[in-house]
Amino acid sequence: MVLHGSLNNIWSLKTSQRNSWLANKIIKIRDVAFHWIKFRVENGKNCRFWYDNWSPFGSLHVFLQGAASFQFGLYPLVTLHDLRSPTGWLLPLARSENQVLLQAYLSTISLSSDEDSYEWVMDDVIMTKFSTGQVYNAIREHRPTIPWYQAVWNKRGIPKHSFLTWLFVLDRCPTRNRLLNWGLITDPNCLLCNSSLEDRDHVFFGCSFSWRI
Q1: Rounded average pLDDT over 31-56
Q2: pTM tops 0.70
Q3: pLDDT at 64 (0 to 100)
Q4: Which structural domain range is residue 172 located in?
Q5: Hey, which bits of the chain come out as E strands?
């Protein structure tokens, strides 16, 4: 319903209150996957000139610096097949360096009778299957490996204990000093010994009650 019967519309859709939350979320993050979804041009009938990733320049709407389609005399959803004639490509004369590069690239393309198709490409390799792990590693923030990770996350560890240790190392335990920082109204003293401010170091190292357990 959102795509109006064509997968090609994914790149030109805008968020709308009529869409579901999930549909709008996908529209907002679609640019993350754009460079992985390559369009293999054959007959050009399904290849959107402005929006599909069919050229080395990515989205032409962006590459041509958001040039309005009316400046080219091309409607927004025009396809490569629409622009091809027996005498060549139906494009206006180039007026910028990027337009020259585009027209030079178009001179290397010849349409065929085969159907267009999409390709999933990662690290310049056409993938035969989708890997969630590979995509996650590509989009996640990479940071240097911390020296203590094996002491917390290991195959023999109990997940509950590992999680608590991880919170402890990062000082993310919900101790009362942190609750106060969050704006909650609570007694700042330790719940166990009631003799000092309850923070991470006190609970694990300074609390007399904890040491007796």
Answers
A1: 92
A2: no
A3: 84
A4: 149-212
A5: 37-40, 84-85, 88-89, 117-122, 125-126
